[in-house]
Amino acid sequence: MSSENTTPRPGPAGATAVQGRHRNPLGTVLRNVGIALDTAARVIFLGRDGVRY
Questions:
Q1: How far apart are CA 38 and CA 50, in angstroms?
Q2: Helix, strand or coil for residue 13?
Q3: In terms of Cα–Cα distance, which of 28, 31, 50, 30 is closest to 40?
Q4: For a Cys staple, 42 with which of 9, 28, 48, 50, CB 3.0–4.6 Å?
Q5: According to the UniProt record, where is the region Disordered (predicted)?
Q6: Over the stretch 1-53, which tens digit does the pLDDT of each residue have?
Q7: Is the separation of the CB atoms in 21 and 29 below 8 Å?
């Protein structure tokens, strides 16, 4: 089985692949704050085992 991709994508995959889509800056800030709070809660309640690298 070959690992080569026979049909290469013209651009990046995922959410960045959609052209012209711009997220609301406030929504981005809130999302990032939520991620930081979630990570902090995992460290506090689960210790270092709760955070995967």
A1: 11
A2: coil
A3: 50
A4: 50
A5: 1-24
A6: 555 666 666 666 665 555 666 778 999 999 999 999 998 888 888 886 766 66
A7: no
Task: State the pLDDT at residue 8.
Answer: 66
Calculate Rg over the CA atoms of the chain.
Answer: 18
CA distances 45 to 1, 21, 39, 40, Å, are 45, 37, 10, 9
pTM score, whole prediction: 0.51
**Sign of torsion over alpha carbons 8, 12, 18, 19:** negative
In a domain, 40, yes or no: yes
Task: Please give the pLDDT value at position 52.
Answer: 66
Q: What is the pLDDT of residue 35?
A: 94
